[in-house]
Amino acid sequence: MKTTVEKINVSPSSTEGHFVRGAKKVVNLDKVNETFLVEGKSVLETKNHTTLEMNEDCLITCQVVYNPFARMFEKSRD
What range does the domain containing 19 cover? Predict the structure, then answer.
């Protein structure tokens, strides 16, 4: 019996969501920084970005950018 993940949002703070489909397993490694380990071949789908085919295990994390006005790093926003 082969099981796959139907749909997991790997960017909970995003207004649009970033969904992994078809992975064997998705593990949330860090809830604050939104870092996920995706095991197995899968697809990353988003409404406001391109669809990305992932052919092997990978690590997905939220993009961090420098805000010169606040003089600090912060999560990128949609």
Answer: 8-75
Q: Is residue 1 part of a domain?
A: no
**Structurally, how many domains does the chain consist of?**
1
pTM tops 0.85, yes or no: no
Q: 2 in a domain, yes or no? A: no
pLDDT tens for each residue of 40-51? 999 999 888 889
pLDDT tens, 61-77? Answer: 988 899 999 999 998 87
Q: What is the DSSP string of 12-76?
A: TT-SS-EEEES-SEEEEEETTTTEEEEESSEEEEESSS--EEE-S-EEE---EEEETTTTEEEE-
